[in-house]
Each structure stands twice: as C-alpha cells, then as structure tokens.
Predict the 3D structure of the following.
Amino acid sequence: MTRGSTLPAHRLPHLTGRLPIPAQTRTPPATLVDTFNAAPAEEALGTLLTCLNSLCWAHRVADHRPYPTVDALLAASDEAAYDLTTTDLTEALAAESLPTLPADAYEAAHLALDAAHAAYEARFGHVFVICLDNVPPAESLDFVLESIRSRLTNDPEDERVVAAEELRRLARQRLLTHLRGAGNCATSHNEPAPGA
C-alpha cells in the first residue's frame, strides 16, 4: 500500500510583541454549603433557628462555619443536637407544632389526632414531635397516630430522649430543605444533592 506524500514539519515563526492566550480559569460553581458558609452571621443564625428553635444549637452550628461539605454541616448539626440540655430541649419543643395532616384527611382523623395529642401533652407537658422523613405522604397520618399512641406508653424520661432524637432528625431535614432551596441558584455539578 502506497502512502501519499507527507507534508514537511511546519514551524510557526516567532511572533514578537504578541501575548499567548491566557489559560482559562473557571470559578467553580458554589456548592450548597458555600451559600450557608457565606451568609452573614445573623442570617445564618436566623436560618438555623427555623430548623430548630434552640439558641444554643444554632450558635454552635453557626459558629463553626465554614463547613467543607454538606455532610460536615449535617454532622455538626447532629452533634450539637446530641449535646442539648434539658433547658435547650424545652426551648426547642416549645416552638414546635403538630405535624400537618394531609389536605384530604377525613374529619375523624383530625379528631383522633387532636385527642391523641391532648393525651400526649397532658402526660409529657410538651407538643408531640416526629420526623416524617422517608414516610410516604399517603401513610403519614397512620404513622403519626400509631407513633403517638405507642409513645404515650413511655415514661417521661424515656420520652424526652425519643423527642430529642425526633428534634435532631427534624433539624437535619429542615437544614437539608433550606440548603436545597438556597442551592436552586448555587449548585455544584461536582457535589451531589444532599440525600442523593
């Protein structure tokens, strides 16, 4: 097989007075946690208080910024929640409200939940809290009613531990929701969405 002629090597002449094209540098897109890290202290504190109404927890999480990843932020949130005192828990529980029933819930469900909650609050002195993360909406009503009835059998100290864990999970869920909302304008193609 015969090959065609090859072109001779070609050299570019030295171009004096010309600058090479500079390498393109890209500013990496902001990650979900970058927006939280960059927020002013008061704004970050306000955001955190909507996730869990405990000044101690919110200050502890806000004061340790910047966080390198969403996972690091969530780990700090969890750790701060584990360290809440009885007074901190009381403060956080006072700001909570009952889980919202689905819009199409029947009247008897509202009555059953109201009665169960009244019994719970009379026994424990605070609102019933539960995290419905990973509970399908169609099952949430039954899940809440079953949980509240089951937890009514706890002694007050055991229930305080359960309520604290539910608050920790709620804070985590709300923080993720906030980050995803802030991330609508500032997401990274390299960092997966939290929980993905």
About this structure: The first helix runs from residue 32 to 38. The chain is about 55% helix and 0% strand.
